[in-house]
Amino acid sequence: MLKNIPPILSPELLKVLCEMGHGDEIILADGNFPAESIGKDAIVIRADGHGTVELLEAILQFLPLDQYVEKPVALMKVVDGDPCKPTIWDSYKQKLNESGNDPAKIEMVERFAFYERAHHAYAIIATGESAIYANVLLKKGVVQ
């Protein structure tokens, strides 16, 4: 065990966060996301039983977001015609703000374009999040 490390961050996840370089992307995937099939070329980390909000909060303590791109955070846009209004996005914005990041720097990405980006992600964290459209992509920045 280590001091001051949130227990929600597994040793495997901490290792991945350390290995990632500037510009690498990581996905926090909800329970419906096809993490194993899309993540064939990525590291897939199981975080069953954990939600995306709690993981986002813990990760943002250690992972700098890319300051050289306009929008270092991406969310999966609601499919046209779907009446869903994802309230979890408000929690994401709150956690970004609390961590000193600008919640306005979120890109909304069409579902299949999000999947395509996930194909190239460094890692996908498969959570037990039950909210739909709860997938969030983070682009790693540099430590200054």
Automatic annotation (TrEMBL):
Signal peptide: none
Keyword annotations of the record: Isomerase
Coiled-coil portions: none
GO biological process: fucose metabolic process
Keyword Acetylation: no
Organism: Subdoligranulum variabile
Keyword Isomerase attached: yes
Pfam families noted in UniProt: RbsD_FucU (PF05025)
Reaction equation(s) it catalyzes: alpha-L-fucose = beta-L-fucose; beta-D-ribopyranose = beta-D-ribofuranose
MF GO annotations: D-ribose pyranase activity; fucose binding; L-fucose mutarotase activity
EC number(s) reported in the record: 5.1.3.29
Domain of life according to the entry: Bacteria
NCBIfam families documented for this protein: PRK15420.1
The protein's name in its UniProt record: L-fucose mutarotase
